[in-house]
Amino acid sequence: MLQYVQKIKMETMSAFEKLDKKIDELLLTILSLKEENETLRQELVNIKAQCEVKTNEIERLQELNAKKEREIEEIVAKIESMIG
Q1: Which pLDDT tens digit goes with each residue over 25-44?
Q2: Residue 38: exposure state from Cβ atoms within 10 A (0-12, 13-18, ≥19)
């Protein structure tokens, strides 16, 4: 009977040790995923900022392009008035 109790106790301890090991592994995985999540969040913030800068630059260049188009149209109109 004593051997049976010791065997059950060892099996229980073994199960608890396995469970403890799995819990430790899960905690390490969670910490790793939290770090990865924070890194990805920072990358996203940086990419959004870069996107905003590029969007502003595109808008500025579109406005400049429209201004140059108007200037070209004015020059063409002057040339046509001189010719015709």
Answers
A1: 999 999 999 999 999 999 99
A2: exposed
What Cα–Cα distance (Å) separates residue 58 from each residue in 14, 46, 50, 54?
65, 18, 12, 6
Quote the pTM value.
0.62
- CA 32 vs. chain centroid, Å, equals 16
Q: What 3 state SS string does 14-32 have?
A: HHHHHHHHHHHHHHHHHHH
**Sign, Cα dihedral of 36, 37, 38, 44:** positive
